[in-house]
Design a protein that fits this description.
- By secondary structure, the chain is α+β, with helices and mostly antiparallel strands.
- The chain is built from four helices and eleven strands; from the N terminus they run E-E-E-E-E-E-E-H-E-E-E-E-H-H-H.
- The strands form three sheets. Strands 4, 7, 8, 9 and 10 form a five-stranded mixed beta sheet that branches. A three-stranded antiparallel beta sheet has the order 1-2-3, with no helix packed on it. It has a three-stranded antiparallel beta sheet with strand order 6-5-11.
- Strand 1 and strand 2 form a beta hairpin.
Amino acid sequence: MAEEHKTVPPWKVLESKYSYRDRWLTLRSDTVELPNGQVLSPFHVIEQPDWSTAIALTRDGNVILVEEYRHGAAQTVIELPSGIIEGPGEPVEHMKRELLEETGFASDEWHPLGSFFANAPRLNNRVHCFVALDARKVAEPKLEDSEVIVTHEVPFGRFLQELRDGSRTFHGFQVGTMWLLHTFARRTRDERLAAILS
């Protein structure tokens, strides 16, 4: 017998107040009524623009990573190129520009991997994920005044092993991107992605 599909009704927003707003985030405090009639206040939501991230792989099998100090973590982190999507345009166009500006790399072959919520309980934004194949250096990075970024090319197989054995620390949303890449590699059987299936 098939399981009956049930859905959870949404919360009813009774009131919203904004206590902080700038270019990067907005803090909203909601008073909500739960489906059982209970009122919850305040329930904080952080509104942010969507993010994009890319796994850029070179023709010789390296993954492009960026090293940058992250003040929230209070440490320097080596991560996938990523950025906030600002203004109109498709997420892939924002990511192409971000990769070029941060690293000087470009690619003619981009594939969408999918998207997911960054953190559905408290954030309202999504992460859009891409793989860029046969990436190559075409220019020097054009960094903003606030950015100090070092680009790394790491053999993709070594990078994957470091993720698997825990010797590389990574953003949670970028681990999600790696999972999407795995499903893409299984579906396409692209030989350039064979390392992720081994």
